[in-house]
Records
---
Amino acid sequence: MKQVLIVTGGSRGIGAATAQLAAERGYAVCVNYRHNQAAASAVVEAIAQAGGQAIAVAADVAVEGDVVRLFETVDAQLGRVTALVNNAGILEQQRRVEDMDAARLSRVLAANVIGSFLCAREAIRRMSTRRGGAGGAIVNVSSVAARLGSPGEYVDYAAAKGAIDTLTIGLAKEVAAEGIRVNAVRPGFIYTDIHASGGEPNRVERVKASVPLGRGGQAIEVAQAILWLLSAESAYTTGSFIEVAGGK
């Protein structure tokens, strides 16, 4: 059966690394992005140059209509989705909770939590054996922030990732009998562009001394864990977490 993967937020960082590694392993890949068409197109081009199949689809996962269109586009151009990586997420400027307003909280929760729920919903509607699907796998990208709390920086982001952990556990149990496995990875301090969004592009360099392995992680290291969770090698694994955090 053809393996079709959607990677949300697939134009950069962990998402881009996951999309390219999945294509190398035979998946037809949809690289979802919100704004950066050039970056998404570059990922698709790299996959094509390596002999893989990929498309780029613009959609804001926090917008229900966009998510529906994303999956319908994949239906038409690649076929029924068999794997989903809920990777899209945002963080905002480092700030204490006492200085956060409701608009910021709504943006962070919409992108990180609501988006993952909506994408999971559409994937289940296509994967579930109860609905005529052939099963599949979902991997949510959480964060060690869900455990550590990110005090003084991103407690809102950490709380959103805590919600992703709960989604992973509950959904895994809900759809296990329908041929769908749901797992998550919890990256630690990874060298990606997301830190610039928080106002500190070199954050990993600042904090890496606190990591037991003594370094920051690379996006490909997270992608490799994601691909294992998508693969048949993890067929008896659901509702579980892999921490890619150097022991943090």
---
Amino acid sequence: MRKILALAWLNAVQLLRNPAEVVAVVVLPLVLTMLFGSAFGGGQASDLSVLFVDEDGSPYAAQVGELVDAEESLRIVQATREEAEAQISAGDAAVAVLVPEGFGADLPDAHAVIEIMRAPTSQSGYAVFAVVQGIAMRMSGNAAAARVVSSAMPGVADFDEVYADADSRWEPVPPIYTEGQTVVASEVRGDSVIAEGTAQSSIGFTVWFILFMTFGSAGGILEEREQGTLRRLLVAPIGRGTILSGKVLGTVLAASVQALVLVLVGALAFGVEWGRDPLGVALVLGSYILAGTGLAVMVSALVRTRDQMSGLSPLVSTGLAMLGGCLWPLEIVSPFMQTIAKLTPTGWAVIGLTDVVFRNQGVEAAVVPTLILLGFAGVTLGIGVKMLKFE
């Protein structure tokens, strides 16, 4: 066992000795995880400022401003019509909501108008228009109810009182509201929630760059073969199995360290709940690291030089990452591509980690991916060890 650990340590030293390898398998994954996690994370977006012009001064006009400001993504800024026109023309503001004079007086007669002013290139104006349109429908319903009741009971029911009573019935939820569901073309897994943003980035990049690490570490075997080190090791009192075990263990340890670093970055920097079920995560990541190591050893046995390995490993790693759902949720691709993903180790790693980390399904969700990945590891390691040449 001491000899195996010594060979594993030598493999790690050889990897860290090459600055290019360190950048490719250590620095680059951290940089990309931070970059994509920040870009697609759930950070708070700044509120859109909406100029609000109240030329009427009535309580109904004030209600328009209050309802616009109540929208979480909008923030009203009081202005005059002239100020709104000047700021929008100069590009200092994107959109303005104007309540013209006489709005409150026209509301009982169903002739009230809310105006929207926006810059020609402003895309946010459409969102504001949708919000104001919803406000107009709410106020129209209140006014219609108040108009019918006050007309039916003149002198008894006051328009303003009935309007206020009708408007109060919109809180905390409107009288009629919609509920939406997203249906994806895939077998329902757990609660069918799709991993997005930082969760997708953290899981995907962890799975993707573990392959880079295993290929980079296994490439050291080719380097030693080119330098004749492997051949000289056979002369030493070390068996072939011990040598191969040391090389495999070194690759597994290097990939495990990288996985730990990427998991910590996802958990501490982006709040991804990697610690929700540590055993489930350990089972999936551990079996996937073995599968990635087996694949890397098999490829290193098939190619002749380290240069060939360096050229082939990015193609294999990136291709498997794309097919396996490291860059986008598997649920958004076609059923055929979802089937293809289940033929790759990256696909099963993403499925297992998404179910355990994001969908909180527990260690039970890790069992099937773990068994499949262990099977993949056994096959590829067996092929690689049998075909690997020491000279």
